[in-house]
Specification:
6-stranded mixed β-sheet; 111 residues; mainly beta
Length: 111
Amino acid sequence: MYLYRILALPFTLLSSVVIASEYTSPVDNINVYSTELTSLAIQNFSNGVVEIDIHGKIFNLAPASGAQLNCSGYKQLELQVRHNDHEYFQVPCNSRVVINESFTNQYAKGE
């Protein structure tokens, strides 16, 4: 798997490939959208750093940043938002995960 960190994902490119369907996320203020891309895109619009665990690899997304993950060979990825009650959830590789501006971590680091 290759991860490409991007400070600001191009909204015009991503918005042009989003399909109308939306997946359900068990974490409040996180939405998952189906796309026509062959990669997983994650955007953090919250005011804080968000830790994402994907199959044991930790990614720290700063505010107003994003990441794109080439997940060839996978149909779904297990995604865990660290410092929250919910254990994990699966997202299709051809999706976009949007962390909304009203998202907050339930627990501070170290608690």
